[in-house]
Design goal:
Chain B: It comes from Wenjunlia tyrosinilytica. Chain B: InterPro entries: Aromatic_CoA_ox/epox, Ferritin-like, Ferritin-like_SF, PaaA, PaaA_PaaC. Chain B: It holds the Pfam family PaaA_PaaC. Chain B: One of its GO terms (molecular function) is phenylacetyl-CoA 1,2-epoxidase activity. The complex is a heterotrimer of chains A (about 240), B (about 325) and C (about 100). With about 240 residues, chain A is mainly α. Chain A has a single domain, classed as Up-down Bundle (Ferritin). Chain A is built from nine helices and no strands. In chain A, helix 1 packs antiparallel against helix 2, helix 5 crosses helix 7 and helix 5 packs across helix 8. The two termini of chain A are about 30 Å apart. Chain B is built from 13 helices and two strands. Chain B has a two-stranded antiparallel sheet. In chain B, a hairpin with a 4-residue loop joins strand 1 and strand 2. In chain B, helix 4 runs antiparallel to helix 7 and helix 6 runs antiparallel to helix 7. The two termini of chain B are about 25 Å apart. Chain C has a single domain, classed as Ubiquitin-like (UB roll), CATH 3.10.20. In chain C, a hairpin with a 7-residue loop joins strand 1 and strand 2. Chain C is α+β, with helices and mostly antiparallel strands. The termini of chain C are far apart. The chains are: A mainly alpha (about 240), B mainly alpha (about 325), C alpha+beta (about 100). Chains in contact: A-B, A-C, B-C. The interface between A and B is large, with 50 and 47 residues.
Chain lengths: ~240, ~325, ~100
C-alpha cells in the first residue's frame, strides 16, 4: 500500500465519515418521521463507505478516533454544521452530485477502490436523487422555503471549489469533473426556481482547505464530541 | 386503509355485536371495516398510539449517543437501531389510522400530553453502557410484551407487530453483545456496565405495568384478545429469562431478594417501587419535560418544510391536471 | 388532495412491494407523503431497509375502493356452494394417473 494511495483512501474516507457524523445529528430531529428514516439511511451508507476506505488506510477506529483535527483530510463542505433543513439539503446536493461523479470514475478504473466505488455509486445516486427532490420542493415550495434554500445554496457555495482540487494518490482527474457537476447542479437549481450562486467558490487563504488538514472552527467541536468517549478509555475494546 | 364506520340501524346492532363476539370466540381477526364496539376501537387507538409514541420518544435516549459511539461499528449499529424505531413508530401510526384517526391528531395529543408513551423513556442515558442496557433490558422487556401482540385480535396491529418483532430481534442481541464487551473489558468499562444495569433493572420491570390486581385495563383487554397474558405473568417470564443472562454477562442484578423458587419453578424477586412508577407516570420522572420538549421542537422546526412539500405538491398536481 | 390529517399537509398512501422477481406485489402497509414521488421514496426507505423488495407501487389510499362488510354475504357466500370448481370434488378411479 503506497503512501499516496493511503492518502487518497483517507481523504475519501474522511469525507464519508464526517458527513455521516453530521447526518447522525439529525436522528430524532428531522421535519417528518419519514425524513428521519431517509437521512439515517444516507448516513448509514456513508458510514459503510467510510469504514471500507479507512480500513484500506489503516485501522478504522484509530483513524477516526485518535487523529487530531489537522490530520483529517475531508473537504470543508461535509463538516459544515447541519443548520436548518435547507442547509443540510444544499450540502447534500453539492456533495452527492460530486461523489456520484467521483465514484463513477473510480468504478471504471482498476484501483483497489473500484469494487467499493461500483457499489457506492448506486448508494450515492440515491442520495443525489433525495437531495434533488428536496431542492425542488424547498426552492419551489413556499416563499419562506424558497428564501431559506436560496440562502443555503449561497452560503455553502464557497466550499464547493475545493471538491475539484487534485488529491494525491487518487487516480481521477478531479478538475475535469467540475464541468459536469456544474451542469447538473445548475439544472437542478433552475428547476427549483433558484439561481446558481455567483460568488467565489473558495476562500482566499493560502493555507489551503480540508484536503490540507485546514478546517473550519466547528469541526474541532464535532471531533471533540465524536472522539471523547473512545479517548477516555485508551486501549479499550468496545 | 381508512376505515369508514358503517352505522347500523338499531335492529342490526345486536347482530353486529354477535358477529364480533363470535369472531373473538373463534380467535379470528377483526379488520378495519368490520363493525366493532366503540370501546374496543377506543382501547385500540389508545394502546396503539401509546405504542407508536413510545417508539418515537424512545429514539431520544439512544440517539443521545450516536455522535459519541466509541467505535464505528457501534455507531453503525446504533444508527440502524434508532432508525428502526422511527420505522416502527410509522408502522404503528399506520395501524392506528385504520381505526379512523389521523397521525396528526395522534401527534398533537402526544405533544400536548393528552396521550402517553412508555415511562421507561423518561430515564436518562448517562453513559455509553446505558445504550447496551437499553438494548438488553428495555428491548428485552418490550419483546416479551410484544411477541403475544402478534396474535392480537385487531388485524392491522397484529401485522404491524409481526414486522416490528422480526426487525427487533437484533436490537436485544446488540445490547447484550455491547454489555458483554464492557463487562469483559477494562475495570472502568465493567463498572460502567454494572452501573447501567443497576439503574435500568427496576424501571425495566415496571414496563410490564402495574400488578394484575391494580391494572385497570387488563381484564377487558384480555377478553377482547388484545392482551394475551397478564402483566405479572409477562414480568415473571422476563425475570426468568434475565437471571441466567446476567450471569453470562458477569453482571449482577440489583435485587437482594432475587432467588430461585424450586416449588414455583420461577425466580422470586423483591418488591417494585410503585410510588416511583406512579410519579414518573404523573410527569415527575427525570426526563419527562425534556423528551416532550425535544419532540415538540423537532415538529415545530419542521413545519416550514412540511408546508413547502405540500405547496410544491399542490402546484405540480395542478400543472399535471 | 384528499385532506388526510388535520393539517391537510400530506396524503395517506398504500404501499405494495414485490419481494422478488416472479412474485406479485403485496400490500406492505401505508405511509404519509405530500406527493407520489416522495411516497415512492419514503416507501423505499421504510419498507425495504432489509432487502424486502425489488419493486414498489404506491397508491393514494383514497383511490382504493373496498368491498364493505355489509356486502360480505352477497359478495362471497355464493362461491361457497360450488365445490365442483375444485379438483377435489371429482372421484378418480385408483391407478389412473396424470389427471
Amino acid at each position: 500500500m503506497t503512501r499516496a494511495f493511503k492518502n487518497a483512501a483517507t481523504a475519501l474516507g474522511d469525507d464519508a465519515l464526517v458527513l455521516a457524523q453530521r447526518l447522525g445529528e439529525w436522528s430524532g430531529n428531522a421535519p417528518t418521521l419519514e425524513e428521519d428514516v431517509a437521512l439515517t439511511n444516507i448516513g448509514l451508507d456513508l458510514l459503510g463507505q467510510a469504514r471500507f476506505l479507512l480500513s484500506l488506510a489503516g485501522d478504522e477506529d484509530e483513524l477516526a478516533y485518535l487523529r487530531e483535527e489537522r490530520e483529517f483530510r475531508n473537504v470543508q463542505l461535509v463538516e459544515q454544521p447541519n443548520g436548518d433543513f435547507a442547509h443540510t439539503i444544499a450540502r447534500q446536493l453539492y456533495f452527492s452530485c460530486y461523489q456520484e461523479l467521483l465514484y463513477r470514475e473510480l468504478a471504471s478504473g482498476d484501483s483497489q477502490t473500484a469494487g467499493l466505488a461500483a457499489k457506492a455509486v448506486k448508494e450515492v445516486a440515491y442520495h443525489r436523487d433525495h437531495a434533488v427532490q428536496w431542492t425542488l420542493r424547498l426552492g419551489d415550495g413556499t416563499a419562506d422555503s424558497h428564501e431559506r434554500m436560496r440562502r443555503a445554496v449561497d452560503a455553502l457555495w464557497r466550499f464547493t471549489g475545493e471538491l475539484f482540487a487534485p488529491v494525491e494518490g487518487l487516480d481521477v482527474d478531479l478538475p475535469a469533473l467540475r464541468g459536469e457537476w456544474l451542469a447538473t447542479v445548475s439544472q437542478v437549481l433552475e428547476r427549483a426556481t433558484l439561481t446558481l450562486p455567483t460568488g467565489p467558490d473558495r476562500t482566499a487563504w493560502a493555507a489551503g482547505a480540508g484536503r490540507q488538514g485546514v478546517h473550519t472552527e466547528s469541526f474541532g467541536r464535532m471531533l471533540a464530541e465524536m472522539q471523547h468517549l473512545h479517548r477516555s478509555h485508551p486501549g479499550a475494546t468496545w | 386503509m381508512t376505515a369508514i364506520q358503517d352505522t347500523p340501524g338499531a335492529a342490526g346492532a345486536v347482530g353486529l355485536q354477535a358477529a364480533f363476539d363470535a369472531a373473538l370466540a373463534n380467535d379470528e381477526r377483526i379488520e378495519p371495516r368490520d363493525w366493532m364496539p366503540d370501546k374496543y376501537r377506543a382501547t385500540l387507538i389508545r394502546q396503539i398510539a401509546q405504542h407508536a409514541h413510545s417508539e418515537i420518544i424512545g429514539m431520544q435516549p439512544e440517539a443521545n449517543w450516536i455522535t459519541r459511539a466509541p467505535s464505528l461499528r457501534r455507531k453503525a449499529i446504533l444508527m440502524a437501531k434508532v432508525q428502526d424505531e422511527a420505522g416502527h413508530g410509522l408502522y404503528l401510526y399506520s395501524a392506528a389510522e385504520t381505526l379512523g384517526v389521523s397521525r396528526d391528531e395522534l401527534l398533537d395529543k402526544l405533544h400536548t400530553g393528552r396521550q402517553k408513551y412508555s415511562s421507561i423513556f423518561n430515564y436518562p442515558t448517562l453513559t455509553w453502557a446505558d445504550v447496551g442496557a437499553i438494548g438488553w433490558l428495555v428491548d428485552g422487556a418490550a419483546i416479551t410484551n410484544q411477541v403475544p401482540l402478534c396474535r392480537c385480535s385487531y388485524g392491522p396491529y397484529a401485522r404491524a407487530m409481526v414486522r416490528v418483532c422480526k426487525e427487533e430481534s437484533f436490537h436485544q442481541r446488540q445490547g447484550f453483545e455491547s454489555l458483554l464487551a464492557l463487562s469483559r473489558g477494562t475495570e472502568a468499562q465493567h463498572a460502567m456496565a454494572q452501573d447501567a444495569v443497576d439503574r435500568w433493572w427496576w424501571p425495566s420491570l415496571m414496563m410490564f405495568g402495574p400488578p394484575d390486581a391494580d391494572s385497570t385495563h387488563s381484564a377487558q383487554s384480555m377478553a377482547w384478545n388484545i392482551k394475551r397474558h397478564s402483566n405479572d405473568e409477562l414480568r415473571r417470564r422476563f425475570v426468568d429469562i434475565c437471571v441466567p443472562q446476567a450471569e453470562a454477562l458477569g453482571l449482577t442484578l440489583p435485587d437482594p431478594d432475587l432467588r430461585w423458587n424450586e416449588e414455583r419453578g420461577h425466580y422470586d424477586f423483591g418488591a417494585i417501587d410503585w410510588d416511583e412508577f406512579n410519579e414518573v407516570l404523573r410527569g415527575n420522572g427525570p426526563c419527562n419535560e425534556q423528551r416532550l420538549a425535544n419532540r415538540r421542537r423537532a415538529h415545530d422546526e419542521g413545519a416550514w418544510v412540511r408546508e413547502a412539500a405540500f405547496a410544491y405538491a399542490s402546484k405540480h398536481m395542478e400543472a399535471k391536471g | 388532495m384528499s385532506g388526510q390529517g388535520m393539517s391537510g399537509q400530506d396524503q395517506l398512501w398504500e404501499v405494495f412491494v414485490r419481494s422478488r422477481r416472479g412474485l406479485s406485489h403485496t400490500h406492505a402497509g401505508s405511509l404519509h407523503a405530500p406527493d407520489a414521488e416522495m411516497a415512492l421514496r419514503n416507501a423505499r426507505d421504510l419498507y425495504t431497509r432489509r432487502q424486502e423488495g425489488v419493486s414498489i407501487w404506491v397508491v393514494p389510499s383514497s383511490a382504493v375502493t373496498a368491498s364493505s362488510p355489509d356486502e360480505k354475504d352477497p359478495f362471497f357466500e355464493p362461491s361457497a356452494d360450488k365445490p365442483y370448481r375444485h379438483p377435489t370434488f371429482y372421484e378418480v378411479p385408483e391407478g389412473v394417473k396424470n389427471l
